[in-house]
Known about the structure:
Layout: E1 9-11, E2 16-20, E3 40-44, H1 53-56, E4 71-76, H2 77-86, E5 90-92, E6 114-119, E7 130-135, E8 141-145, H3 155-163, E9 170-174, H4 180-187, H5 190-202, E10 226-233, E11 237-244, H6 246-257, H7 259-268
Antiparallel strand pairs: 1-2, 1-5, 2-3, 3-4, 6-7, 6-9, 7-8, 10-11
Helix pairs in contact: 6-7
Zinc ion binds next to helix 6.
Amino acid sequence: MRKHHNPLVVCNDGFTMSVQANDGAYCKPREDYPDTPYTHVEIGSPSSKPVTLELLERAELFNTEDYTQTVYSYVPVEIVQKEIDAHQGLAEGCLPTHRYRAFLIEPSDFKPNMLIQYKGGGYDGCFWEWNYAFIAPDSEFVNLGSTGSAGCDTLEELEESYENKKEGDFFLYDLNDKKALTEVPDEISVDHLIGVAGKLKEAGHPVDFQPQCCKCETRFSVEFASPHNLVGIGGIALAHQDILCEDCAVDNWEETESDDGHRELYEDA
Ligand SMILES: [Zn+2]
């Protein structure tokens, strides 16, 4: 199906711009649903002249000096983020996603063995708390964690919320497909992965997700995962950025115990 337009990006200071990526936009990869995330996107019609030099340099300016009525081609996503940051962060909208699983034609397409990631109530600013639900093999609705105004306790509520969805609000992972065992850990945050895996197990539907260790880069069972590298996100919350396998977690613990080991750890990085 034809990809939807990415909704308008609105920043906290009121600045807006169109940010698009699809098979007709000046983006890389130039596809509707590529296998890998977009590295470059197309920007159009900013509400005022962009403030970052890197973005200004990418204006096409066909016969015009007006920076608002023009297109910015193949803009690296890092530069888009820099411009958003310069406008006090994202208030509404999101960067275009390459993931086709965000789109279903009918809510009835929710299927058994589907993990659903959807936007919860959200806080002010750019940080959104994700909610998770699971459709069990017997079609039972399993709430894996819902917070905020958009949290859903039943499938009916979720279907209703789906009717009013925006692009990027929903991601669906078909756990019948073995690819999901690596895709889910690669796409969702470490703390959410460990939470979702625990709740699924508790509900009697264990799933052997295979995250990749950030140190030795092997895939291993989520059951033996150690969260690693705690950082602040948006000044609102703390989250782990990385995941370690059992062996690397032990090594890491031993290395940080001695000064020598500590130094080695940093030389590795
Ligand atoms: Zn490891």
